Amino acid sequence: EFLQNDKNITTYALNTFKPEDNILKEIRERAKKLDIPGIHVSDMDGKHLEILISMAKAEKVVEVGTLAGYSGICIARGMRNKGVLHTIEIEQKHFEAAAQSFKNAKVDHLVKQHLGSALSVLAELEKEAPFDAIFIDADKVSYPDYLTWAEKNIKIGGVIIADNTFAWGHINDSHFETLELEKQVKSIREFNYRIANNSQFIATILPTGEGLTVGVRVS
Ligand code: SAM
């Protein structure tokens, strides 16, 4: 059992480290009103993102899957007012909500939003490589493709971070309720397996509730 699943410990961590301020809280509420799915990173993972980006001293960052801008704000805060975050989103409604969020959080000067399918925007961004960090949090079946891009375009010393890598608790299942879930789980497994076994990376899965895979490129 991961301790993070213990309610007492979760409450303690949240009360002590207070990962979510009013700016972030407002995004969850506004997204709900706009009928945008509440699939933002968890409050603690938002904080983890900010810290990882800050530790990597990342100033050139890519995010795959903007939604309403919650994780983008965490990343931008970790950049400490320097650099550029390219964030990619396929849904116009999410893109617009995120623009509002970045403005409210006063990080819009650090963020370049891209509307479109991640793989085609990533292909465009390649000319600006290498990047210091990438946060992967969009369609799960494309995680292996996003990894292929990241392996090529993240600098030595840079980091790859991916969310939901316990596949909502299904990562080690052998039977699946739907074919869609099976495809998603197998893609996330492939992602984890490849980064874990790539000798150019030191990688781990941080056992946060959702599972946050982190790899640092070392060669
Ligand atoms: N990172 C966001 C956060 O924590 O605030 C959550 C992202 S949400 C889990 C995934 C987002 O990826 C959705 O807004 C979805 O529309 C977008 N998405 C899905 N497939 C995509 C694709 N192929 N290209 C770009 N965005 C995509």
From TrEMBL:
One of its GO terms (molecular function) is S-adenosylmethionine-dependent methyltransferase activity. It comes from the Bacteria. The keyword Transferase applies. Keywords: Methyltransferase, S-adenosyl-L-methionine, Transferase. The keyword Transcription does not apply. GO terms for biological process: methylation. PANTHER family: CAFFEOYL-COA O-METHYLTRANSFERASE 3-RELATED, O-METHYLTRANSFERASE-RELATED. This is O-methyltransferase.
